[in-house]
Amino acid sequence: EKEKTEMHDSKEDPRMFQKGRPEYRSLSYDKFESVDTLTLEEGDSILHSVAICKGRQSPGTLTGYFCKLSRLPAEQHTALVSEPRFNTLCRYAVKNIRLFSTSDLIDILKACIRLVVPPTHPLLNACENEFCRRVWDMNLDQLLLVADCWRCLERSVPSYLSILFSYANMHWKDLTLPQFVQLVYIIGEGRRSPADLTQKVESMILKYLDAFTLEEVGAICLGLFKSLSGISDHVMRKIADRVSLQMEDMSTYALVNVLKMLRYTRMDHLPLLKELGKVIPAQIPTINIQGIMHITLTCSSLHYFDEGIMAAVAMSLPPKVTYCRSKDAAKFLWSFGCLDYEPPNEEEFYSSLIEQMHRKLHEFRKFPEHLLTALLGLAFVKRFPEELIDYALRDEFVQKTRGSKYELKKDLFTLSKSVEIECPSYQGSRLPPQLYQEMLEMVLNFAEQEIYVRPEIVEATSLLESVLGGPEYVKNHMILPHTRSSDLEVHLAMDGQPIPFNLKDPIADKKLKDIGVSLTDDLMTQLITGRCNSQSPMDVENEARTPGQEGGEEAQTPRAGDRAALSGGALITDARLQVEPKSGRCLEALTLNQQPRRVKLAIQVSNRNHYCYCSKRLLGLHCLKRRQLQQLGYVVVELPFWEWFPLLKRTRLEKLSYLHYKVFDPAL
Q1: Of residues 331 and 450, more confidently modeled
Q2: What's the whole-number mean pLDDT along residues 262-280?
Q3: Which residues contact 452 (CB under 8 A, 6 or more apart)?
Q4: In the predicted structure, residue 362 carries a pLDDT above the cut 70
Q5: What pLDDT digit, counting tens, does each position of 612-635 carry?
Q6: Which of 191, 234, 497, 616 is deepest in the core (most CB within 10 A)?
Q7: 221 neighbors 257 (Cβ within 8 angstroms)
Q8: Which residues contact 22 (CB under 8 A, 6 or more apart)?
């Protein structure tokens, strides 16, 4: 019984709506229609007649043969289809295909469904060509029934569907409610959306919305979802309005299909989501694993956190975990990580899913995106199963990701760099340096076009420059490029004074004038050779302090490699030292490695997409980022969107005051 509950029939489940109205009998094939069984002797007699008559039978007689033979016991069907006399019958039908009436041809298709004739069989080729030729002489019920038969035969018929959609477009005003729902079902099963029908489909949904059964609402959403049909927010909101009022009366399957479309359109329909939190937790134990996965994925995709739903999912999952496909396990882990939720049974929950990932490793070879999805979800909540990570970062697996229909480089980048920061003892596979560089360039190019230029970030950067004393005191960049969001980096001395560090080549002269390093023989030797004659690094550092940094700060000894890098700059003698470095490395060595101890701030200009919907709960990726920044010695300071965005409309003085408080308040 449990096995039966967990099994999802991808062919029959989407057709459940057809049981709701008698009209669907003329529009669809009924797999469960009772037929009288034919005996083996009767079947053999028919095949004998085929052999001796040599095609002289009428089309009606041939149709009768197909229908009768399809009533043989199911265990005889495979043998029948490979029987030479049955193939002779098929050849006679193909030869006389144009002599059959349309209803006879439909009966032959139904017989082929019962006999499980292979979708590439020559008889079906001939039938498809003939139906395409006859489309304009058939009525809409027949056209939809034939399309349904092709679906049951699992035969792809894009040409037939294209003509069907053109016919429906011309007769749109005549469509009845059942014909419309069946058409949307066919559109979904064909996995293509006719662009010229989009507006008409929307208007028809609005016309019949109150008259649809709840199963039909689910069928329409599934058809739109499978065909990737766009739908306006207005129409989706109307559907969600109705579902939110009748959710308790809806089958789980129909509800899950509505949630799929809600997810696809990214519709933040709060009444529906709140009702989901009331209705679904009690039902979770009775829902199959794929249904639970889609409910969980809807919450995470919409960034909607409901602890009741998530806790119910977590408690019900371990006993069912062996029914998880690789996709299901991945989506569960992603969803819990995305919402940064560790349930009360977290150890049992996570260990059961990780064990299932090991069992499904063969599936990850075919669907590499699922393994990366799962591992990122685990990384968000600081879990790093090293065996699976080692497998995911091997050259062989990385090559498989290149063949995926998804862009997986960013996920590989995020995973690999996270392991580097958070798992210092990890000894497994790592990505090659050239791949890192390729990923880094891709992420940085995106950031320059899409992230650094966002108005709230540009405004914060400009105002911080005013607060701190210039562009050298703040840097708008990604400290951790693998986390795909920007930081405003600021350095403060231990006495709270800002330290210049954003020293780029075009303005290097100005920056080094401000530093004010005395030009001594020993410093010249150090710059040229990487060594100091008589001074220790501490002595050089004390001379290299900027005005306002005198005092008892703790020094940091520069690394030997950084000291050696100092030999690359051209020197200009003056009362103050001025350097024009070739690469900027000597400048960094002077200003960073020979500076006293400092506080490095990573200022986050957050937005709504960093948080769960309608809450101040940070999403998993941003929890990971802040955790890693802290591990690298940064103090994370946030300009939360609920404070900063309203301030953007206020006076410059108010914004400056706010930023000054954020940077310099010791309590922060």
Answers
A1: 331
A2: 93
A3: 458, 476, 477, 486
A4: yes
A5: 999 999 999 999 999 999 999 999
A6: 497
A7: yes
A8: none
Alpha helices in 606-640 (DSSP H): 620-631
List the structure tokens of 130.
Answer: 């003939």
Sequence-distant (6+) residues with CB within 8 A of 179 are: 27, 140, 141, 144
CA distance 131 to 658: 72
Tens of pLDDT along 225-260?
998 877 899 999 999 999 999 999 999 999 999 999
Q: Judge residue 448's burial from the number of C-beta atoms within 10 Å of its C-beta, 0-12 exposed, 13-18 middle, 19 or more buried.
A: exposed
Separation of alpha carbons 324 and 356, rounded Å: 7
pLDDT score, position 596: 59
Residue 664's contacts (CB-CB under 8 Å, 6 or more residues apart) are 492, 496
Between the alpha carbon of residue 390 and those of residues 237, 386, 419, the distances in Å are 45, 6, 10
Q: pLDDT tens-digit profile of 51-95? A: 777 767 788 989 998 999 999 888 889 888 888 888 888 999 999
Q: Coil, strand, or helix at residue 598?
A: strand
Residue 531 is which amino acid? R
Residue carrying the six token digits 């999802």: 8
Report how far residue 327's alpha carbon sits from residue 386's, in angstroms, rounded to the nearest whole number: 20
* DSSP state letters, 155-221: ---HHHHHHHHHHHHHTGGG--HHHHHHHHHHHHHTT---GGGHHHHHHHHHHHTTTS-HHHHHHHH
Structure tokens given for 461: 């950067």
Alpha helices in 469-516 (DSSP H): 508-515
The torsion defined by the Cα of 168, 174, 176 and 182, in degrees rounded to 10, comes to -10
Q: Where are the beta strands (DSSP E) in 388-486?
A: 475-477
Neighbours of 633 (CB within 10 A): 10
> Would you mind telling me the total number of residues written for the chain in this entry?
668
Residues ≥6 apart with Cβ < 8 Å to 560: 530
Q: What is the spatial distance between Cα 186 and Cα 164, in angstroms, rounded to a whole number?
A: 10
What's the rounded Cα separation, in Å, for the pair 71 and 73? 6
CA of 515: how far to CAs of 469, 592, 652, in Å? Answer: 14, 12, 29
Interacting residues of 552 by C-beta distance below 8 A, sequence separation 6+: none
